[in-house]
Specification:
By secondary structure, this protein is mostly beta strands. It is 10% helix and 48% strand. It has 3 helices and 24 strands. The strands form 6 sheets. Strands 11, 13, 14, 16, 20 and 24 form a 6-stranded antiparallel sheet that branches. Strands 12, 15, 17, 18, 19 and 21 form a 6-stranded antiparallel sheet that branches. Strands 3, 4, 6, 7 and 8 form a 5-stranded antiparallel sheet that branches. The longest helix is centred in the first third of the chain and has 19 residues, at 4-22. The model is unreliable at 1-21 (pLDDT under 50).
Length: 291
């Protein structure tokens, strides 16, 4: 019997050790609950604080853990004191398949002590980075705004300012009908040095629209204009929305010394036949930002 007991004990300890290898003790995560972002701006120098931050990009102690739709409840295995970095995520050109960290918003950084099964709530507040440069900010609060109709032979007063249906104060209103089914407008002047300190150029636009609107750039070399290039745009939206157009590739691709922002819209049609008698496009808080 004395020889059997140690053998049984050894076998039992071996079995327990094997169980630990097969089913090791799991780490219990702590949780971060991240609310939607708030954007703070200086209205005089940075314009309105409207934004469309749709995701949070999470980094913990320098390790990127993923992007999450807001609001987000995120498990984090690290325990104890952790450096939490939250970056504001947007959709490039409004496309869900192209999520990006918006480079012009600063990161939100906090140091937290995470504990298993406990939830820490973060309410991120961000600003524009100090390095952000605003080529222009157009809130459409003054009749001397920077956009003008550029189609030959058209009415140069197609852009009206209105408080009816406006987002903030007054907004720009473009009206389309069968007699005037198309509009093309551009900034009254070009903008230089958009990529002298970096290669990122974005156009922020608040909008509400009954029609598709295309945006693009027109390059100038020594004062000679090239044909406008239209790339991103937005679809009709019955409610106010915001979009971040990434114009970087359009600006970098051409050997131009200045660029105008252009947009065009047409009364909805199918195979050349108008499907509506009228359409309205509202615009507000248009900003051209770069580094």
């Amino acid at each position: 019997m004395r020889t059997i007991y140690p053998t049984l004990l050894y076998g039992l300890l071996t079995l327990l050790a094997a169980c630990d290898l097969i089913n090791p003790e799991e780490n219990v995560p702590g949780y971060l609950y991240v609310t939607p972002f708030t954007l703070n701006t200086n209205p005089a120098t940075e314009g309105s604080n409207t934004h469309k931050i749709t995701e949070v990009w999470l980094t913990v102690n320098g390790e990127f853990l993923g992007a999450y739709a807001l609001p987000a409840l995120i498990p984090v295995l690290g325990q104890g004191e952790q450096i939490i970095t939250l970056d504001a995520g947007i959709r490039d050109n409004g496309v869900a398949a192209t999520p990006e960290i918006y480079p012009f918003y600063e990161s939100f950084v906090r140091t937290l002590t995470l504990r298993p099964n406990e939830v820490d709530t973060l309410r991120p507040v961000v600003r524009y980075r100090n390095a952000t440069r605003f080529a222009f900010i157009e809130p459409f609060e003054n009749i001397n705004h920077i956009f003008r109709e550029v189609r030959a032979g058209t009415d140069f007063n197609r852009i009206q300012l209105t408080t009816e249906g406006a987002l903030e104060g007054s907004s720009a209103l473009i009206q389309l009908n069968r007699d005037n089914p198309a509009v093309e407008i551009a900034t009254v002047r070009g903008f230089r040095d958009l990529i002298t300190r970096g290669f990122l150029v974005y156009l922020e636009v608040d909008y509400k629209s009954d029609a598709i609107v295309l945006f693009g750039v027109q390059g100038f070399k020594n004062g000679v204009p090239a044909a406008p290039v239209f790339d991103p745009g937005f679809l009709p939206s019955a409610t106010w929305n915001k979009i971040y157009f990434n114009l970087s590739a359009l600006v970098v691709a051409g050997d131009f010394d200045e660029h105008r922002i252009v947009l065009q819209t047409v009364l909805p049609n199918e195979n050349g036949v108008f499907t509506q008698n009228n359409a309205n496009v509202w615009l507000d808080n248009v900003k051209l930002v770069h580094f």
